[in-house]
UniProtKB/TrEMBL annotation, chain A:
Region (Disordered): 450-494
Annotated Cytochrome c domain residues: 346-444
Protein name, UniProt field: Cytochrome c
Lineage: Bacteria, Pseudomonadati, Planctomycetota, Planctomycetia, Pirellulales
Keyword Transmembrane: yes
From TrEMBL, chain B:
Recorded topology in the membrane: Multi-pass membrane protein
PANTHER family: POLYSULPHIDE REDUCTASE NRFD (PTHR43044:SF2), PTHR43044
One Pfam family of this chain: NrfD
Keyword Transmembrane helix attributed: yes
Name listed for the protein in its UniProt record: Polysulfide reductase, NrfD
Organism encoding this protein: Mariniblastus fucicola
Cited InterPro entries: NrfD-like
From TrEMBL, chain C:
Protein name: Quinol:cytochrome C oxidoreductase
Segments crossing the lipid bilayer: 21-44, 50-71, 91-112, 161-180, 201-221, 233-256, 277-298, 318-336, 348-368, 388-415
Keywords assigned by UniProt, alphabetized: Membrane, Transmembrane, Transmembrane helix
Length: 494, 465, 437
């Protein structure tokens, strides 16, 4: 029977709670209640009772669909994360140019940047993790839990629900509900005990200490982020804290430094004889992937002459040897383009672009030798503030002459420099050099020369410019007198 | 209560095809289940043995703490890892513990999906064991990175300072994802399963602190049928997610080895073979823990001999799968005609580390064969001994795989012999301290039996009594 | 509310009722014509015929092996829910000893000539042969090793091969016969002890079964390319076998129920569980297939990758088949069979099991035919790939119909007038009242 009926204004009836002692009678009561027309009711049991869902009219959970949606999203998330962070690209994914995202691109064991098989495991884990979160939190949300304050917990009898008793509650919200009728019903269906469940309306008021406590708590929580941001935004002159000193100051020598005296005695001992802290590569060693044995491609020299000098590999050798070689074999240069390079619209466009970056500053956009640096240097030289050898016009007969200056030689000029022009092999990759050669030939084919350039060219030739006699002397100092002369000439023509 | 004594109530390992043996003995009713399961928790003071065990576990934990501290201060050079055995004991311990951590989720998830009702008495403790084993496992890769305070570099977190991302083509990173996902999902699964039982404790406790803590942890659970409905669906989904997850975790651990080209590591059977081995060692650990636990906590009527027998059968089956994988590896090494593979395998069995190999074979393949005899698989003290052997064997399996292959790599000039240091040994021993500390605390403060689930598989009595 | 059903068979018809007498000769004649026609259409080209025959033989064999596994594991785990569908599996498993006859077209040419299906049996087989260029290069450098073919011949030779196959069929036949006989005896007596006997037998039987499947899979399919090896291969074979067996059992139940047999015993709950198991094995197959591929792809060792390289090459056409397998054998059934509704709808389930069987056939085709392509078609036509013309398709289809016809004939022979459901199994009540929560 209902006890402690309290009708004071701060209580509101939630429903009637009936106790049963075993699942079978609970199940029967549920069926009876449904047949009697009750719709808003719920059973409370220590374990899930088989068959109670249809008895209470519980519809099948839609949780699986939420999880499925999240799982499908996780496929995109997982793959996208890896695609982005490992710098995948669309199209040819093995080249740097194809990067469409600024990810962290690093070649590992020859695998493509975006390797689908290798990305499956992590994608799978992301799917499972996301789905598990969706299941876990979705279930609690659907069940409207956590709900720590529940009028049911005020019924002392209800404590047995998590042990061995079974309860059915008819809710007061139900249209069919009527306190006395329903009680009679429940008795009739075999309830062992019936209790009223009342909502204590004062429950909604927070205890007075809670608001200030929450405020203080929130303020305290603010301290760490504020501290972090203040450190972030300020400078500090103190040396940083070294938590693990022997990790910060390790017993090792960095590359490219002199070896200290490792003997720790007066008689010095160094790691290596040349006092370096690192070893240098053995002479003749070739970096992996740098065996540039295609002489036409890499040196512009015909294959039959390629064996003349061991110039493969270390680049310092290249300069000297080509010069020596050229004297011996004036016809060693290839006259066309190497097999590995195709002249077409793309490479010409590339050549134009590279030419305008690297060459035009001296040689001018049209190759007339009137680049801005050249003009400025000549102007300075005229005042005696600099010494300068004027850049060559690429339309100069000695340059355009394909017998004297075949494509291979132009390539060599870009690679190793000539006279006072410096080498560009470190700045311009091989294929770009050939692209520039192609573009230079195209420029020459146009035959466009700057007004008055003809005169300069011919004068320069008369003056015996070193370019003209194909001299191989590289040093700028030796050409200084002529350089001054030609500079003066150039200044005159301007 | 029945007055005639049913023989099955005394020995529920008798096999009668016509009816299923009872899984709850002693004529316990619902309340009896709760009282039995919560006995240790109810007790005002835990038994003396508990204190003694906790003291031992704590001192081992202290040893672990000291070792980790020493390691972080001095660097990973204090381990025995050398050239060419770059992966020494830490990875062996890691794989060992991850393997142990498989049985819990397996019992919960796979046996749940296959509706093996006998799982209900043991799944909670096994799940707890999973979590604690994964904690132990995570320790080793955790500390090996040196600067542990920047562990988050392993995760794809955008940081301005770092300006780099993890390399997703590396199986070691897959491991980070697999193990952390596994730990998280196992924790969710464990906790979700525990909520109704925590609610039992909330309604049972008399202490104020207990009411507060269990009250919050139980999230206001009322046992409403609507809640149960969603809860059961969610539990099924989590089980369905956890099952492939369990497989994937040890599969990915096996990838750490198998994607390489090292002879003895690169074998395609590794994924299922590692999974079988993990289940094998995990079940062995569950038996090792539960036999004493059921005695100390008085759970003989819930964790019955039949439960133990079933687990022993699984141990025997997976032990034979592992043994078969050993055999296939040998056969395939010969059949493939790859001399490196042939050398690696013959070196395992007859080389420097033959002692480890034969310890492994006798513990993993031969020892479980005793379970063919019913007495062996139904006698608690005996099965614990066998299961301890299995655990030793499984540790050695990881040792054999890791060390023998590395110490004899392709270049004979770099061959060497691996010697563990005292730090290696202490950390392994110490990790057991961590594991047992957590498990003992769990036994005392958390529901060690899934009470709600046990009740749900008890035969429904006729209501009118 | 559900009521507990009594442990009794209630269906009006529980056997074929004499239908087998009519169906068996038809099936056998269709089968013989189909197989003979294929051989003739391929102009008595033994190689081409043997390969497509192997695909179909393996198709039939794997299904029966899977059924044998289903029976054994049921006893091993003391399963109760599947008692009513177990008899179908027992009957299919009993076909295994008879299938040895279907194995003879593969075995006899092998034994009595230096020709036949497998390259390793050919007189002139050496590692320089068409199939093995990769390893030939690798091993050329190492002169002190014995030639690889010598080593392989210690295992891959006709005598040992034949002995092994006799052993496999003895193991399978023995197991199947024991289970079916005991189960039939129980139909008569209802003796509970027989169940206990089968359970006791199942544990050691499982070990023999596992060993036989491991080695037979290597012999039957892996040794087509004698130089390729993968320790995972038997598991792959096993996953496909069980999946196809589950599909076959379900298909048979659906068919029998449509013809009015065993209508009460197999309920939607059983289909639901079979569907779940099939879903599980679809995932398992995907897991094994992916793991095997990933490990070989990642390590990138030539003596393993060449097998996949050939099957992944889009220019040779086999890559398309690989993609069909990936999508059709994993993704589509994964999504299709995930839902609960689907598994409880008999029409949808019928589509699903037929689809799965087709996919399993394609899987075997993918395992076998590229090998023919590599070893023989290249030798004949340098362009490679088997020409997929109408003629080839018709011939291959004829062979499939033929072998399936023979298989159906064998099945009807085995079934006879035996009951299609266990009549007095002690766990029958459990199965009849089985309900998926």
């Amino acid at each position: 029977m209902a006890n402690e009926t309290n009708n004071s204004s701060d209580k509101e009836l939630v429903g009637l709670l009936a106790q049963f002692d075993d699942p079978t009678s609970l199940l029967a009561a549920c069926n009876n209640a449904r047949e009697a027309g009750y719709t808003k009711m719920d059973a409370y049991t220590p374990f899930p009772v088989h068959g109670i869902d249809p008895a209470l009219g519980i519809k099948r959970s839609f949780l699986p669909f939420i999880v499925l949606a999240v799982a499908l999203g996780a496929v995109v998330l997982g793959l996208g994360m890896q695609f982005y962070t490992n710098g995948g690209g669309i199209g040819d994914w093995s080249t740097d140019e194809a990067a469409i995202f600024p990810g962290y691109r690093f070649m590992i064991s020859g695998k493509p940047y975006f390797s689908l098989p290798a990305n499956i495991p992590v994608t799978f884990e992301v799917i499972v993790l996301s789905s598990a979160f969706a299941t876990f939190f979705g279930m609690w949300i659907i069940n409207r839990l956590p709900r720590l304050s529940n009028p049911l917990h005020r019924v002392s009898r209800f404590k047995r629900v998590t042990n061995d008793k079974f309860f059915l509650m008819l809710e007061a919200k139900d249209d069919k509900f009527d306190a006395s009728d329903s009680e009679a019903h429940l008795n009739q269906w075999g309830a062992v005990a019936i209790e009223e469940v009342n909502q204590d309306l004062t429950d909604t008021k927070l205890p007075s200490w809670m608001a200030p406590a929450a405020l203080i708590g929130a303020l305290l929580l603010l301290i760490p982020p504020v501290a972090i941001f203040s450190v972030y935004g300020s400078t500090n002159r103190k040396p940083r804290l070294h938590v693990v000193p022997d990790m910060d100051w390790q017993h090792k020598f960095k590359t490219q430094v002199l070896s200290p005296n490792i003997a720790e005695k007066d008689d010095p001992v160094y790691l290596f004889e040349n006092r370096r802290a690192m070893r240098q590569p053995v002479e003749g060693s070739v970096r992996f992937g740098s065996l540039e044995d295609d002489s036409e491609m890499f040196r512009g020299i015909k294959k039959e002459f390629s064996g003349q000098a061991a110039t493969v590999g270390l680049k310092s050798n290249v300069l000297a040897s080509t010069a020596v070689q050229e004297e011996e074999n004036p016809d060693q240069w290839i006259t066309g383009f190497p097999e590995g390079f195709k002249v077409n619209e793309d490479t010409l466009a590339r050549g134009k672009q590279r030419f305008e970056i690297y060459c035009s500053v001296c040689h001018g956009y049209a190759g007339n030798g009137d680049g801005l640096v050249n003009q400025r240097a000549i102007a300075l030289a005229a005042n005696g503030k600099a010494s300068w050898t004027a850049a060559k016009s690429l339309h100069d007969p000695t340059v355009t002459d394909s017998v004297k200056n075949p494509t291979g030689r132009i390539y060599d000029t870009i690679t190793n420099g000539r006279n006072t022009m410096g080498p560009y092999r470190d700045q311009i990759p091989v294929e770009d050099r050939w692209a520039i050669v192609a573009y230079v030939k195209a420029l020459q084919a146009t035959g466009i020369t700057a007004p008055g350039a003809e005169a300069t060219e011919s004068e320069a030739e008369e003056a015996g410019e070193p370019e003209a006699d194909e001299s191989a002397e590289p040093a700028a100092e030796t050409t200084e007198p002529e350089a001054e002369a030609s500079e003066a000439d150039d200044a005159d023509t301007e | 209560m029945a007055t005639t004594v049913d023989p099955k109530q005394l020995n529920n390992t008798l096999d009668d095809p016509a009816e299923r043996s009872p899984l709850v003995l002693g004529g316990l009713d619902y309340e009896g289940v709760t009282d039995t399961a919560a006995a240790v928790w109810d007790a005002e003071r835990p038994p003396m043995v508990w204190w003694v065990l906790l003291l031992i576990a704590l001192s081992l934990l202290g040893l672990l703490g000291a070792c980790v501290n020493h390691l972080l201060m001095a660097g990973t050079g204090v381990w025995g890892n050398n050239n060419p055995v770059y992966w020494g004991w830490p990875i062996v311990n890691f794989v060992f513990w991850v393997g142990i951590g498989h049985a819990g989720t397996l019992i919960s998830a796979i046996l749940f999906l296959f509706r093996q009702n006998w799982r209900t008495s043991i799944n909670r403790a096994a799940e707890a064991m999973t979590i604690f084993a994964v904690v132990c496992a995570g320790l080793f890769p955790g500390v090996h990175i040196g600067r542990v305070w920047v562990f988050y570099w392993l995760f794809p977190i955008p940081t301005e300072h770092l300006a780099m991302w993890p390399n997703f083509r590396s199986p070691l990173l897959w491991d980070v994802f697999a193990v952390s996902t596994y730990a998280t999902v196992s924790l969710l699964f464990w906790y979700m399963g525990m909520v109704p039982d925590i609610a039992t404790f909330r309604d049972r406790t008399r202490s104020k602190i207990g009411k507060f803590i269990y009250g919050i942890l139980s999230l206001g659970w009322t046992g409403s049928s609507r809640a149960w409905h969603h809860y059961e669906i969610a539990y099924t989904i989590l089980a369905a997610l956890a099952t492939p997850l369990v497989l994937s975790v040890h599969t990915i651990v096996s990838f750490d080895f198998a994607v390489s080209q090292l002879p003895g590591w690169h074998t395609t059977i590794f994924p299922p073979y590692f999974v079988a081995g993990a289940i094998f060692s995990g079940f062995a650990m569950v038996v090792t823990l539960l036999v004493p636990a059921r005695k100390l906590c008085g759970l003989e009527n819930l964790i019955t001999i039949r439960h133990l027998e079933n687990m022993n059968k699984i141990i025997m089956a997976t032990g034979m799968m592992v043994g078969m994988a050993y055999g296939i590896e040998f056969f395939m090494a010969w059949y493939s005609g790859v001399e490196f593979e042939q050398f690696a395998l013959s070196n395992r069995a007859f080389g420097n580390y033959a002692w480890a190999y034969w310890i492994m074979v006798s513990c993993n393949v031969l020892a479980p064969q005793v379970f063919w005899f019913k007495w062996c698989r139904t006698t608690p003290w005996f099965m614990v001994i066998v299961c301890i052997f299995v655990n030793i064997g499984m540790w050695f399996e990881r040792f054999v795989i890791t060390i023998t292959s590395l110490s004899r790599d392709f270049v004979p000039s770099s061959w060497s012999y691996f010697h563990p240091t005292w730090v290696d040994i202490s950390m392994l021993v110490g990790s057991f301290g961590l594991f047992f500390t957590l498990f003992l605390l769990f036994c005392r403060f958390m529901p060690i039996i899934a009470m709600a689930e046990v009740k749900s598989i008890m035969p429904v009595e006729d209501g009118h009594h | 509310m559900h009521e507990t059903r009594p442990a009794k068979i209630t269906s009006p018809i529980v056997d074929l009722g004499g239908a087998h007498l009519k169906l068996m000769p038809i099936a056998l004649i269709v089968g013989a014509i189909g197989v003979g026609l294929t051989y003739a259409l391929y102009a008595f080209d033994l190689q081409r015929f043997s390969h497509i025959y192997l695909v179909n033989f393996a198709f039939v064999l794997t299904m029966c092996i899977g059924c044998l596994f289903f029976v054994t594991i049921s006893h091993l785990t003391r399963a109760g829910w599947n008692v009513t569908v177990r008899r179908i599996a027992e009957l299919y498993a009993q076909c295994l000893p008879v299938l040895f006859i279907l194995f003879l077209p593969i075995l006899i040419p092998l034994l009595f000539s230096n020709d036949g299906l497998y390259v390793w049996n050919q007189a002139g087989w050496s590692i320089d042969g068409a199939s093995t260029t990769v390893i030939a290069e690798l091993n050329e450098a190492d002169a002190k090793l014995p030639p690889l073919e010598e080593l392989k011949k210690a295992y891959l030779n006709k005598t040992f091969f034949a002995i092994r196959w006799v052993v496999y069929f003895c193991i399978w036949g023995g197991m199947a016969t024991f289970f079916l006989r005991t189960s039939l005896k129980q139909d008569q007596t209802g003796d509970k002890k027989l169940t206990s006997r089968m359970q006791a037998f199942s544990a050691p039987a499982m070990i023999a079964f596992a060993a036989s499947v491991v080695f037979s899979s290597m012999d039957l399919l892996m040794s087509l390319e004698p130089l390729w090896f993968s320790t995972m291969f038997p598991v792959y074979f096993f996953a496909g076998s069980v999946l196809s067996a589950l599909a076959l059992i379900t298909l048979t139940c659906l068919y029998l129920q449509r013809t009015g047999r065993i209508t009460d015993e197999v309920t939607v709950e059983h289909y639901h569980d079979m569907g779940k198991l099939m879903f599980g094995f679809v995932v398992f197959w995907g897991y094994i297939a992916f793991s095997q591929f990933l490990l070989i792809w990642y390590a990138n060792i030539p003596e393993e990758t060449f097998w996949y390289e050939y099957r992944m090459s889009l220019t040779d056409g086999w890559g398309v088949l690989s993609i069909i397998l990936l999508v059709g054998h994993l993704f589509i059934p994964f999504l299709f069979m995930m839902g609960r509704t689907m598994r409880r709808n008999k029409n949808l389930l019928l589509i699903a099991v037929i689809y799965l069987l087709v996919m399993h056939w394609i899987d075997l085709y993918w395992l076998v035919m590229p090998q023919y392509d590599r070893a023989y078609a290249h030798a004949i036509e340098p362009d490679g790939m088997i020409q997929f013309g109408v003629r080839t398709l018709l011939c291959d289809a004829a062979c499939t119909v033929g072998v399936l016809g023979l298989f159906a004939g064998i099945f009807f022979l085995i079934v006879g007038d035996k009951p299609l459901v266990t009549l007095q199994d002690p766990r029958l009540g459990e199965a009849l009242n089985h309900e998926v929560h």
